Amino acid sequence: MFVHYYMTENPVTVSADSTVGRAEELVSQHSFRHLPVVDEQMLLQGIITDRDIRSAWPSTILKPEERQKVFEQVRNRPVKEIMSEAEFFLVQTATLDDALLLFTTHSVGALPVVDGSNRLVGIFSVSDMMHAYRNLFGLGEKGSMLVAVQDNGEKGLFVTLARELEQHSISCTRMVRTPGEQGHAPAAVYLRVNTCKMAQVRQIIEEAGFHLFAPTGQLPGGPQNA
């Protein structure tokens, strides 16, 4: 899945010569935290964040008159003096995986998206990524439920589960197999099914030779797994 389909297109921007005061007004007005900095051709030059702006304001320990003087000086300084270089960004063909790796590795909250000529075409935030993954995994779809099945390593497990559910008219819209992690999540297959008949789903899966599980080892309304 590509970030292009979930990014904010034509984001609000400032030029490097815009004042810090103008940038602060835009951030406050639109209630966002990241403001791309571009030139007249929309070439990406950097990014200014609400944190950059807060860090530039004078210290509260200054005397009121001195603080006000410094405050006005900072407000009239150009953005280029406090912006961060656009060291990390995404291209239009970047995937959610690409964005997630940058978010987690560099602890950033949003990334500019550029075309092949380095012109800004959008901005992709952590919130955008959450929305994209929500759609990807079917979270919130009407009547959907997430089912966890113990992975016994059987070949053709996907085919078997999908066939058994389909034969009973249970729609399975997502299926993910995870290898697990020692001391954490076990190896499992996660199914997104569109039905309210959880008891029937459990029966179908168990009759096919598999077992459902929950983190506590206790299924709601059922006996503890062996």
Describe the protein:
The chain is α+β, with helices and mostly antiparallel strands and 226 residues long. It has 2 domains: 3-135, CBS-domain; 144-207, Alpha-Beta Plaits. 32% of the residues lie in helices and 22% in strands. The chain is built from 7 helices and 10 strands. The protein has helices at residues 20-30, 50-56, 64-75, 96-106, 126-136, 157-167, 198-207, and strands spanning 8-9, 34-38, 44-49, 84-85, 90-91, 110-114, 120-125, 144-150, 171-178, 188-194. A hairpin with a 5-residue loop joins strand 2 (34-38) and strand 3 (44-49). Helix 4 crosses helix 5 (126-136).
In short:
With 226 residues, the chain is an alpha+beta fold.
Helix and strand arrangement:
Blueprint: E1 8-9, H1 20-30, E2 34-38, E3 44-49, H2 50-56, H3 64-75, E4 84-85, E5 90-91, H4 96-106, E6 110-114, E7 120-125, H5 126-136, E8 144-150, H6 157-167, E9 171-178, E10 188-194, H7 198-207
Parallel strand pairs: 5-6
Antiparallel strand pairs: 1-7, 2-3, 3-4, 6-7, 8-10, 9-10
Give the second-level CATH assignment, the architecture of the largest domain. Roll
Physical arrangement of strands within the biggest beta sheet:
1-7-6-5
Query: What share of the residues does DSSP label as strand, in percent?
Result: 15-25%
Q: Runs with pLDDT <50, length 5+?
A: 217-226
